[in-house]
Design a protein that fits this description.
This protein is α/β, with parallel strands linked by helices and 141 residues long. The chain has five helices and seven strands, in the order H-E-H-E-H-E-H-E-E-E-E-H. It has one domain. Strands 1-2-3-4-7 form a five-stranded parallel beta sheet, covered by helices on one side. The protein starts with a helix and ends in a 5-residue tail after the last helix.
Amino acid sequence: MAAERRPHCKFWFYTRSFKHQILFEELTELASLDNVSGFLSLDTANYDVGMLRFSQAEAGVWKLALLQEEPLSLADGFLEQVKSLAEKHEVVVFPKHHGGRHVAPLVDKNYTICPQVVGGLKLESRPNLAKPCQTCAFCLP
C-alpha cells in the first residue's frame, strides 16, 4: 500500500464508497494508518448507511465530512446524532456552494467549517503559495 511505504507523507481522503462491506473494510484498513485520515462523506442521499458504517468501525478510525445542503433536508435527529459524535470525533462541514455562493454554514463549537468553501482561504494557482488544505491542515493526520 502506497501510504504504508511512505510513513512520513500525510494522506487524507473523503469517500462515499461505504455501501459495500468489502470495500468499506479495505478503506477502513487504509484510514487506520497513522499517516492517513479518512472521512466518510455524508449527505442527504447516504447519511443512513454512512452513520451505520461509522458506528461499525473501531472508534477513532473514521472522521465525518458533512455536505450541508440547503434547505437542510436531513432526517429528524441526524444533526443531533452528528453533534453527539462530534464531541468524540472530528467533523468537517462543507456548505454546498455554487457560483461563488454557499449556504449559511451550520454553527457548532464541535464542527469545523471548511475555510476554502466559505472564503477564508482562497485557492491560488501560484506554485510557491500554500494551498488551502495545507494552510488549514484540519483534515491532515
